[in-house]
């Protein structure tokens, strides 16, 4: 097995995005080599043009850049999207807050971090979709996945469109780590699944509309996350 990143870098909660420049960018939490704690107070971005050689763009956001972050907060599970010439990096912290920072490039640095307004309730693991018509959708949560349209400011949720249970543990085995994609007119949510008693497999659900309803399609990874990651 060939690691896609140098062995000194550890990037859990990975989110891969092909950006307008054609390169593939990997966003994710960042574990510091030699530390015993998971994740950290900073985020790195990596990119590749050939899936073989990867470039570390360094620290693109750190907790010190976020004046409203609670003391001792870490940064987790980011997602990044391109909209109208800007790149928006969404992230969560361990004080149940979610935020967004902006950059002119997909590799940052990301600046002016602000809270995502109304992203309440199990506020972890943001997942973002820019639909074909330009409408942005935002998903977040653990055990119950929430979703809503994003307003044009890219930081405020339209709560009139909010669904509090896009996916749940009972009907979909949903645990956390949602990822949203659109393919051939269908919307796919990928996530960690607890159907086998622990969140050690990956599943997907599909819908004709971004906010659902979603039907579970099945598992596409049934080994432990340490091997799938």
From TrEMBL:
<dbReference type="GO" id="GO:0004553">
    <property type="term" value="F:hydrolase activity, hydrolyzing O-glycosyl compounds"/>
</dbReference>
<dbReference type="Pfam" id="PF04616">
    <property type="entry name" value="Glyco_hydro_43"/>
</dbReference>
<dbReference type="InterPro" id="IPR006710">
    <property type="entry name" value="Glyco_hydro_43"/>
</dbReference>
<dbReference type="InterPro" id="IPR052176">
    <property type="entry name" value="Glycosyl_Hydrlase_43_Enz"/>
</dbReference>
<feature type="site" description="Important for catalytic activity, responsible for pKa modulation of the active site Glu and correct orientation of both the proton donor and substrate">
    <location>
        <position position="125"/>
    </location>
</feature>
<dbReference type="InterPro" id="IPR023296">
    <property type="entry name" value="Glyco_hydro_beta-prop_sf"/>
</dbReference>
<comment type="similarity">
    <text>Belongs to the glycosyl hydrolase 43 family.</text>
</comment>
<protein>
    <submittedName>
        <fullName>Family 43 glycosylhydrolase</fullName>
    </submittedName>
</protein>
<keyword id="KW-0624">Polysaccharide degradation</keyword>
<keyword id="KW-0119">Carbohydrate metabolism</keyword>
<dbReference type="GO" id="GO:0045493">
    <property type="term" value="P:xylan catabolic process"/>
</dbReference>
<keyword id="KW-0858">Xylan degradation</keyword>
<keyword id="KW-0378">Hydrolase</keyword>
<keyword id="KW-0326">Glycosidase</keyword>
């Amino acid at each position: 097995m060939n690691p896609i990143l140098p062995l000194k870098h550890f990037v859990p909660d990975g989110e891969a995005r092909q950006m307008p420049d054609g390169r593939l960018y990997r966003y994710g939490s960042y574990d510091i080599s030699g530390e015993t704690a998971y994740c950290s107070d900073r985020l790195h971005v990596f990119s590749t043009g050939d899936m073989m050689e990867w470039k570390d763009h360094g620290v693109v956001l750190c907790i010190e850049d976020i004046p409203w972050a609670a003391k001792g907060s870490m940064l987790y599970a980011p997602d990044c999207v391109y909209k109208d010439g800007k790149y928006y990096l969404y992230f969560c912290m361990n004080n149940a807050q979610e935020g967004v920072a902006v950059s002119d490039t997909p590799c940052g640095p990301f600046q002016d971090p602000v809270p995502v307004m109304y992203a309440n309730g199990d506020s972890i693991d943001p997942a973002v979709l820019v639909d074909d018509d330009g409408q942005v959708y935002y998903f977040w949560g653990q055990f119950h996945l929430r979703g809503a349209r994003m307003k044009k400011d890219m930081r405020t949720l339209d709560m009139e469109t909010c669904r509090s249970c896009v996916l749940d543990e009972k009907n979909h085995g949903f645990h956390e780590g949602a990822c949203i994609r659109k393919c051939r007119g269908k919307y796919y949510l990928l996530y960690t699944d607890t159907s086998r008693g622990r969140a050690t497999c990956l599943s997907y659900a599909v819908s004709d509309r971004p906010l659902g309803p979603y039907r579970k399609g099945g598992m596409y990874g049934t080994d432990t996350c340490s091997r799938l990651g």
